[in-house]
Amino acid sequence: MALYYARSENVYKDFIIRRTNLQETVEDVLERNRLLLIRSGVRAEVDCPDPVYTDGKWIAFIVNQMILNSVKYCGQQPVFRIWTKRERDGVCLTVEDNGVGIRSEELCRIFEKGFTGSNGRDHERATGMRLYLCRKLCDKLGVGLRAESEYGRGTRMTLLFPISVYIDREQED
What domains appear along the chain, each with residue ranges and CATH number? Predict the structure, then answer.
C-alpha cells in the first residue's frame, strides 16, 4: 500500500489505455482473493459484459481495494454483486455489498486521506488510505467514482467510465 501511495503522484506515466474486459478483470481480482473470500463466507455475483477503454492494471487495483474494504466490513452471509451497466455517458461498474454500511454523516468524507470513520475505529487495522488511493487513481484515469451507503444495510461503489469514441466506432462496425 505504501508503494502505491508513493507512486500515486506519477502513476499516469504508467498508464496503458486499451480495451479492457471488465468481466475478466473482476474475475481475476476475485481469484487473487479467493482464500480470503472463502474464509469470510462471501458469495460473489459478477455480470460485467461491457468493455471499456482504460488501464486494466490500475482498474484491477481499484476494484481490489473496494473488495478488500467490503470483506473487512462484511456482515453475516456476505454477498458481493459486481455488474456493469451501459448508460448514455459511459459504462458504470458497480461493486455492491450487504455489509455494515457507512453512516450518512461520514459518507462525504470516505475519500479523504486518513479518514477511517466510526467503522474504521472499530477495526484496528484501518488506515483510511484505500478509498483515498482509489479516488486519486480514478481522478488520474478520468474515471468517475461515487459511493452510496445505508448504515446497517451495505455499500455501493460505482466507477463511471466515460464513453469512448473507440467504443462508438466498434459498435458501428
Answer: 2-172 (3.30.565.10)
Cα dist from 138 to 21, 22, 72, 109, whole Å: 17, 15, 22, 16
DSSP β-bridge partners for residue 18: 54
C-alpha–C-alpha distance, residues 43 and 103, integer Å: 24
pTM: 0.85
* Distance, CA of 12 to chain centre: 18
d(CA 75, CA 29): 21
> Along the 173 residues of the chain, how does pLDDT read in single tens digits?
444 444 445 555 678 889 999 999 999 999 999 999 999 999 999 999 999 999 999 999 999 999 999 998 888 899 999 999 999 989 999 999 999 999 999 999 999 998 887 766 665 567 778 899 999 999 989 999 999 999 989 999 999 999 865 555 555 44
